[in-house]
């Protein structure tokens, strides 16, 4: 049983639903922002997520970054200490998908020395009739960049829990893996 | 049995995994360790029931990027003074061993170490030893 703490950077174009995802995470359906308030620079949201089938919990410090590029330089300074990232696009907005490569590039430039990992998320799945990016395309991009892929709707609270369960269990398994490495080192040295 | 084990205890630690507790820092074996459980800075305080005097420190860690050490001779753990600050190279699959000798011996009631940054989400502290003098004849604490 362990309680871990991790900083998760959420990035992507404006209005794709980053703030909405951060707020409904942890099953807070009522926290969905119905009207749009653009994020200035960044907001910090705290969410505790239990890892499925275990007593382990991860407390996420969600670093909800603005999609406005005027903040990019300051954001990159604050991203240095991230443990994980989540790149979000809007499945009805082709441009937001095209920009994922740019966001990924910015994130990897500032990731510091940490061993980070991330997920790609296509949001607004409830607007299926307006879909402009196929699930297949999303998957392909994620696979080519070694990220897990998810589609979700922050509005309907569909698919959000899966994203956070994945991030939490991956974070815990990295922790356990590090411990196994250290214990093995101890056995081999003495 | 060194004096450290009977006289010193960890009075504060910012991470608490019950299987890898901060008390492992004072255990003389490097096989047992304290795990930090995410985010920096991380810190711990070691308190001596009887104040000790030391000059030499040996600090064994993994994944630590930068740390600062402080001490105080106050009864209470406050008014700490910086004694040592260092950036370590990344030594991913080996332990980082830091030996440091102070200009002179100092009297210490509380010792504080702050890990400012790491090379990974999780770092570990395997042991911390204090010596009175920087010589093999020195009295071990
Ligand atoms: N239909 C639908 N609308 C959503 C969904 N998620 C968010 N929205 C709406 O999209 C708008 C923008 O959402 P935000 O979460 O503020 O967007 P953001 O990515 O944080 O934008 P910036 O902070 O400007 O970068 C809001 O009006 C939300 O109500 C969703 O899953 N479905
Ligand atoms: Mg926002």
Outline type of chain A: globular
Low-confidence stretches of chain A: none
What's the alpha carbon Rg of chain A, rounded to whole Å?
A: 17 Å
Number of strands of chain B: 7
- The fold-level CATH name of chain B is Jelly Rolls
Helix content of chain B: under 10%
CATH architecture of chain A: 3-Layer(aba) Sandwich
Radius of gyration of chain B: 14 Å
InterPro entries (chain A): P-loop_NTPase, Rab, Small_GTPase
Keywords (chain A): GTP-binding, Nucleotide-binding
GO molecular function, one term (chain A): GTP binding
GO biological process, one term (chain B): intraciliary transport
Description:
Chain B: Residues 13-124 form the F5/8 type C domain. Chain B: InterPro entries: FA58C, Galactose-bd-like_sf, IFT25. Chain B: One of its GO terms (cellular component) is cilium. Chain B: This is F5/8 type C domain-containing protein. The complex is a heterodimer of chains A (190) and B (141). The radius of gyration of chain A is 17 Å and the shape is globular. Chain A has 190 residues and is an alpha/beta fold. Chain A has helices at 18-24, 72-79, 94-98, 100-109, 135-144, 160-189, and strands spanning 3-12, 42-50, 57-65, 84-90, 117-123, 148-151. In chain A, helix 5 (135-144) links the parallel strand 5 (117-123) and strand 6 (148-151). In chain A, strands 2-3-1-4-5-6 form a 6-stranded mixed β-sheet. Chain A has a single domain (3-189), classed as 3-Layer(aba) Sandwich (Rossmann fold), CATH 3.40.50. Chain B has one domain (8-134): Jelly Rolls. In chain B, strands 1, 2, 3, 4, 5, 6 and 7 form a 7-stranded antiparallel β-sheet that branches. Residues 134-141 of chain B have low confidence and may be disordered. The chains are: A alpha/beta (190), B mainly beta (141). The interface between A and B is medium-sized, with 27 and 28 residues. Magnesium ion is lined by residues 18-19, 39, 64 of chain A.
């Amino acid at each position: 049983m362990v309680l871990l703490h991790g900083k998760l950077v959420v990035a992507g174009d404006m209005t794709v639903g980053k703030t909405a995802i951060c707020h409904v995470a942890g099953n807070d359906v009522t926290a969905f922002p119905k009207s749009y308030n653009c994020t200035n620079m960044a907001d910090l949201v705290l969410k505790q997520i239990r890892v499925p089938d275990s007593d382990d919990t991860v407390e996420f410090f969600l670093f909800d970054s603005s999609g406005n590029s005027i903040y990019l330089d300051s954001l990159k300074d604050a991203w240095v200490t991230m443990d994980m990232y989540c790149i979000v696009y809007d499945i009805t907005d082709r441009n937001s998908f095209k920009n994922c490569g740019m966001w990924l590039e910015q994130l990897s430039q500032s990731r510091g020395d940490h061993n980070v990992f991330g997920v790609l998320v296509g949001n607004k799945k409830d607007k299926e009739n307006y879909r402009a990016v196929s699930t297949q395309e999303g998957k392909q991009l994620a696979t080519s960049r070694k990220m897990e892929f998810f589609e979700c709707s922050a509005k309907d609270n569909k698919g959000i829990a899966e994203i956070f369960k994945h991030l939490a269990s991956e974070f815990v398994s990295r922790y356990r893996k590090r411990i196994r490495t250290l214990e093995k080192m101890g056995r081999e040295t003495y | 049995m060194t004096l450290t084990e009977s006289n010193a205890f960890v009075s504060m630690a910012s991470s608490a995994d019950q299987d890898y507790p901060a008390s492992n820092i004072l255990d003389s074996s490097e096989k047992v360790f304290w795990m930090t459980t995410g985010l920096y800075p991380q810190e711990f305080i070691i308190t001596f029931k009887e104040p000790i005097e030391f000059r030499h420190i040996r600090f064994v860690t993994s994944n630590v990027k930068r740390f600062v050490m402080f001490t105080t001779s106050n009864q209470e753990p406050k008014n700490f003074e910086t004694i040592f600050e260092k950036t370590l190279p990344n030594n991913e699959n080996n332990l980082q061993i830091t030996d440091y000798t102070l200009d002179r011996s100092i009297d210490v009631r509380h010792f504080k170490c702050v890990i400012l940054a790491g090379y990974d989400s999780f770092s570990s502290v395997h042991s911390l030893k204090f010596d009175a003098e920087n010589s093999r004849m020195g009295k071990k604490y």
